[in-house]
Amino acid sequence: MVLPDTTEDTQGSGLASVNPDLASERLTASFCVPRLTAVLDGGAERTRLRRAVEDVIESDPVFSRENQYFQSQNERYEAAVRKAVHVRKKMQEMGWSEDGPESVYVYRALSGDVAFLLHRVFMRSISVLGSDKQVAKWIPLASEYQLIGSYAQTELGHGTYLQGLETTAVFDISTQEFILNTPTISAMKWWPGDMGRSATHTVVFAQLYIHGKCYGVHPFIVQIRSCQDHSLCPGVIAGDIGPKMNFEHIDNGYLMLKNVRIPRENMLNKFCEVQPDGTYIRRGSQKINYFTMTSVRISLISDEVILPLMKACTIAIRYSVVRRQSKLKPGEEEAKILDYQTQQEKLLPQLAAAYAFHFINNYLHELFNRGYREIQGRNFDSLPELHAFSSGFKAMVTQYCTSGLEICLRACGGHGYSLLSGLPSLYTKILASCIYEGENTILLLQTARFLIKCFTAASAGQPVPPSVTYLAAVKPGKCPAKDKLDFLSPDIYTEAYQHAAIRLISSTAAKLQDLIQSGVERHEAWNQCTVQLVQAAKAHCHYITVKNFVETVEKLENTAGIQNIMKHLCDLFALHGIFSNAGIFLHDGYITGAQMDMVTASYLDLLGIIRKDAVPLVDAFDFTDKNLNSALGSYDGQVYQRLYEWARKAPTNKQISPAYEKYLKPLLHNKLSKL
Amino acid sequence: MVLPDTTEDTQGSGLASVNPDLASERLTASFCVPRLTAVLDGGAERTRLRRAVEDVIESDPVFSRENQYFQSQNERYEAAVRKAVHVRKKMQEMGWSEDGPESVYVYRALSGDVAFLLHRVFMRSISVLGSDKQVAKWIPLASEYQLIGSYAQTELGHGTYLQGLETTAVFDISTQEFILNTPTISAMKWWPGDMGRSATHTVVFAQLYIHGKCYGVHPFIVQIRSCQDHSLCPGVIAGDIGPKMNFEHIDNGYLMLKNVRIPRENMLNKFCEVQPDGTYIRRGSQKINYFTMTSVRISLISDEVILPLMKACTIAIRYSVVRRQSKLKPGEEEAKILDYQTQQEKLLPQLAAAYAFHFINNYLHELFNRGYREIQGRNFDSLPELHAFSSGFKAMVTQYCTSGLEICLRACGGHGYSLLSGLPSLYTKILASCIYEGENTILLLQTARFLIKCFTAASAGQPVPPSVTYLAAVKPGKCPAKDKLDFLSPDIYTEAYQHAAIRLISSTAAKLQDLIQSGVERHEAWNQCTVQLVQAAKAHCHYITVKNFVETVEKLENTAGIQNIMKHLCDLFALHGIFSNAGIFLHDGYITGAQMDMVTASYLDLLGIIRKDAVPLVDAFDFTDKNLNSALGSYDGQVYQRLYEWARKAPTNKQISPAYEKYLKPLLHNKLSKL
């Protein structure tokens, strides 16, 4: 075999300008991209602040995520701790406070790749559940990092069902202490972040016993490691729970307590207290214990769920105009894959959903802030609605975004499957959001319970909270649409969603009633309806999201085409939902088969319309390349060169594998080779 | 703080007997488990053989997967190579041939965690595409591992669209060689397994040029590394493509060729040849190049797609009877989570699907074997049907099983998210099956093209292949079911599926026709119909799968309740599909809303019935604990103890993190600590 003598690599040297296929997409935007960015950020001033913060973070090499896809769990943990310590220093230097507006952007720029997030939950739970005295003692210590906190609620045997927690805290009147114990293996705390290797303290949720009587689950501050030498405190067994699908940088931990004594003052006692003589005093709803969870649940939706979907859309859509594959028309050059209807149908509904969820999230935050102010004033009235609302939305948004992210990943084919695309780690991380802070099915059933109650109340003419007044307006009727354009009317589709939600809630309420009247016990009847109750809760959340999107679009000023393109996205989000859940709308004939064909036609038309603005619509999310950390999704679209350059840096190319000397060589030389 | 002096860990020491909650599930099986296992294996003799092979593999420590979840990509690769070399030795020792029945079970027992699988594809492609002379030369070399082969088809810029491959092979008449080149960065071979670090040879697919004329894509055998010292051959640049979502044990590689010359004899030439004077001779359909892909596509469905779903069902269902959470009835003990209707609705349809796909896979193999014999006799008539059939089924089964596996993972909550559950790696691996060996959407569109052709032919009274004769029987009609029990009649639901498939195919054919008649160009009209064409192809595949399940159940002897429970699973599979895709059946009123309520009622009833046999139904899959490699899914159900024991072995608990000395200590000691 004659071979040439030049084997050096001359390719992939330096990434040049923007890929022309991507550049051309930006010339035809129907709206002003920076203006839309400002709408998303909540004003141009905010955009400037966010970018300034991103600049500071991204220009500091300590925060680099360049090697993220190549690191082991141990390396990821070390990097996350290093970043957590450094970010504190950085914020002090910059004069940014933890509560300030910059803080949000700092964590956005870090992309969650940092330790001590549970330290913040530790502080938040003390702020919410602690007395003024406790807040005065612990918050400064925590703020100054004289301790590292965690939040130990979940146990090996119990997650969302808090009442079932098995850890015990027995009040010892003689020493004025609580004695904490892990009575069984399933009672071991399991999963708390920052606890496996870092935390010195943690809030432990345990069943409170006084004089042998159980008072239910309460929060206690427990020291688990020495602040001097970090050794485990006596009676404490703790460690890391090992490898997970993602979150390698977090030391999710286990914790066993054996007769660990803490002073009486360490029970968080804003809402209930054990007095020195063992008298138990309650100062408010026990439901307040759920409040930290509700608050965490709401706070994570933006950073952990919606932003990842926005990133995935950015990566997949940019890639889909750079990637050319096969021919749409014989004789022409290969087509951009985003010009295939099937690719549009995968990606554009996810893009519309990202916008829809961004807007509903704003609404949820307003609602939460109002509720929080009320609770501070010891008014717990809004807690049930807030809990039902946040539960359902957390479930819907996490489920939808997780599916959406998987679709984006798969839509990028083999390259999406490479860690270097950024999509696998976004996916494996967002998947966890369906599980943590309340398993989605259980959350949806909590929403459903609220809806059934409100439906019953509304049917009896009693007042119900504002978000569910529509349940009083049960009317049969038919969808009045006459042609496909009618389905671009928000009234038409919003009513269809409302009708479907009412139908599912009322028919499930009726089934439940029938079962109970036929002699089935209430709890068993409930169980037999749960599949349908989940459907009903989803339909309710979907309806509220569509309605909120419509209202948001109405409020947007019609500048530079923004209202126009948002209207298209809103239509797409709504019609995609009808198209994908056709059975719900066809079931009672509210929408007929012929009308469903109109929905389909309008839906497919919208894909073609939004296709034209797809790249500007993801550009408006305004992610930096460093934030995306994707070989496929960068602003310049130099996809293949970047994949190749990044791959060459992989540890698999740095090491001559011992496998050759040990196994391959003896194998290949097992006979006198003929080759 | 007074603390006790006993801190040693006395828990989790040794796993004892079967968890009683799991044991009780096995006492009430309505059928004989070993008999069902034999049905799945294809006879009790087969079961014995499989178990004997599993014993041999699992008792050899080289094949242990104990540390799998803790290893880096480099470690996984080394282990996989070691296993590949060792398995060859083992099989020789045992007298098992690569073509023998034991071989299938060897690879099942190894769970794919082994290198050189592409070596087998290399051999297969030579066997199928090579002349007798080429087979005689290369197969013995490959069998004796005097070379390590790979299969280099996919490029950085091209996957499923083979015609677009850019690698060139120019015939040099003067030297009687082909000169292979990678003309652009996107032409780089990218993804081939075993190529990044191991292979010495590979089959390269390249555009053949003779005298400046392109003859399309052809396969060439190219040496890429020395068999003596494993150095890259001159003109060859190759390496590993870096981290992926899974397949860390495989060295998926990249390959660039610069004027690499190979002798004329290295083009695989059973079906076409370049003669010494440059004359090009074709001896059969060019489609034969797709045949290796079709063959690989079919061969992987069982091991890479159906078995993983069966494993996931085993893990999730066993866990769901051990896990107790919350109360079904106040005052009672906490309920097994499988007793919640929502949990049943997640898992049991996946179980039914695993059985459905096992049976359709048997059918597909029969069809393939018949086609293969015909092709060996140079009869290519059955190729289009086989291609359409295998494409659609690959897409449907991979999509369905991937979703099913994700559902199983999420149904296990936080513990499912731990790598130690085994579910994340099953999921991240099966996800790849939606992409490799043909992207699913493209495959479904190939099936759709075949269906539209056959529909047109059938409408014109022309003969069509057996699997699509039903397309000739278009009749409007309505579903005759009168109550929920009618929906347990296979005739009723099979006809509903058939009706839905015909409706979707015929309505899309009509839309296509309308568009073309209205002046839209044919290719553009096709693109505008693709979302619906994909739906139609899925409906066809779903129908055939239901029909095959029904026929399989009919053939099962009614011993020890097996036919009975299989009938329930078949009903569940069918009704789950109608329930989940209600819109398709409601659209033209074939099934009314009232009938859909009957479907729902029967479907939910079936969940309760199959619930009773859920554990025996997964026990029948007969996976060993080592094969499952799951802390949640073992036969004894000692879930919590195993999670804890495995977690303690994690590298994160072996190492005192440098993070403490470097970052935590300075942080905590930044002021005079008050703690």
UniProtKB/TrEMBL annotation, chains A, B:
Gene3D superfamilies: Acyl-CoA dehydrogenase/oxidase, N-terminal domain (1.10.540.10), Butyryl-CoA Dehydrogenase, subunit A, domain 2 (2.40.110.10), Butyryl-CoA Dehydrogenase, subunit A, domain 3 (1.20.140.10)
Binding-site residues, FAD: T154, G193
UniProt GO BP: fatty acid beta-oxidation using acyl-CoA oxidase; lipid homeostasis; very long-chain fatty acid metabolic process
Highest taxon of the lineage: Eukaryota
Residues covered by the Acyl-CoA oxidase C-terminal domain: 490-668
Named cofactor requirement(s): FAD
Record flagged with keyword Phosphoprotein: yes
Major localization listed first in the record, in broad terms: other
Localization of this protein: Peroxisome
Record keyword Transmembrane helix present: no
Keywords (A to Z) from UniProt: FAD, Fatty acid metabolism, Flavoprotein, Lipid metabolism, Oxidoreductase, Peroxisome, Phosphoprotein
Protein name: Acyl-coenzyme A oxidase
Species annotation: Chrysolophus pictus
